[in-house]
């Protein structure tokens, strides 16, 4: 959670004041929002959670080591599964060791999540289609009302939303990498179009190192000769 606290400190240094926070219903997203608000001294800001902001469902790949996936399927296939827009990993089956843990999770019942809408696997395109109704019906109206919004989401739900708001092409999204624990600023006009490209806030050298770390995931480690 050190990354979340550092994120909060960075936002505090830039004098950000938030009116509303949105998270997924996954622990990491919620805890991150709490820690950011604590660092900002804005714990009182309302927080709303939705399963539609959840991280992408990786299907049968859930729980697998990314390097092992690369060894089994090749780095390019793993890159397509992880980074492309419309390629979907193999779906999770009931025999998967995490299947019942996921689909019997109490949070989905408590949060009124339609079980028939829970995916068995998702591409980034699927994530965007899942996320957009919540953006259009709940988040966008708050932005249009003039509120400053913090979204504590995940790598792929964030990529999907940025693709939509910035008009990033299906081909170019594969090259968009979002480092963890780095605040991303996106300003929108009255039509909810991005005024400019998203900005990573913080030390740019450290941010580039964090981006490389994410990009190197899913690659086979090779011993030096």
UniProtKB/TrEMBL annotation:
Chain residues that bind substrate: 28, 55-58, 82-83, 155-156
InterPro entries: His_Pase_superF_clade-1, His_PPase_superfam, Phosphogly_mut1
Cited Gene3D superfamilies: Phosphoglycerate mutase-like
An annotated GO BP: glycolytic process
UniProt GO MF annotations: bisphosphoglycerate mutase activity; phosphoglycerate mutase activity
Residues the record marks as site: Transition state stabilizer: 154
Pfam families (UniProt xref): His_Phos_1
Signal sequence region: none
Catalytic activity reported: (2R)-3-phospho-glyceroyl phosphate = (2R)-2,3-bisphosphoglycerate + H(+); (2R)-2-phosphoglycerate = (2R)-3-phosphoglycerate
Keywords: Glycolysis, Isomerase
Entry annotated with the keyword Isomerase: yes
Family recorded in the similarity comment: Belongs to the phosphoglycerate mutase family. BPG-dependent PGAM subfamily.
Function text: Plays a major role in regulating hemoglobin oxygen affinity by controlling the levels of its allosteric effector 2,3-bisphosphoglycerate (2,3-BPG). Also exhibits mutase (EC 5.4.2.11) activity.
Name by which UniProt lists this protein: Bisphosphoglycerate mutase
Organism: Monodon monoceros (Narwhal)
């Amino acid at each position: 959670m050190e990354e979340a606290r550092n994120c909060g400190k960075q936002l505090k240094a830039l004098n950000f004041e938030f009116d509303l926070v949105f998270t997924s219903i996954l622990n990491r997203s919620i805890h991150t929002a709490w820690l950011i608000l604590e660092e900002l001294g804005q714990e009182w800001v309302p927080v709303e959670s939705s399963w539609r902001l959840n991280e992408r469902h990786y299907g049968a790949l859930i729980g697998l080591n990314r390097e092992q996936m690369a060894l089994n399927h090749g780095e390019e296939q793993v890159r397509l599964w992880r980074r492309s827009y419309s390629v979907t990993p193999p779906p999770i089956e009931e025999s998967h060791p995490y299947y019942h843990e996921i689909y019997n999770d109490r949070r989905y019942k408590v949060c009124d999540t339609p079980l028939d809408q829970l995916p068995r696997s998702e591409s980034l395109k699927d994530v965007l289609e899942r996320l957009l109704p919540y953006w259009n019906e709940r988040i966008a109206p708050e932005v249009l009302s003039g509120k400053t919004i913090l979204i504590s989401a995940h790598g792929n739900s964030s990529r999907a939303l940025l693709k939509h708001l910035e008009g990033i092409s299906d081909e170019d999204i594969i090259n968009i990498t979002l480092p963890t624990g780095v605040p991303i600023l996106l300003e929108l006009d009255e039509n909810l179009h991005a005024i400019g490209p998203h900005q990573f806030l913080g030390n740019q050298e450290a941010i580039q190192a964090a981006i490389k770390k994410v990009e190197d995931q899913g690659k086979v480690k090779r011993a030096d000769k």
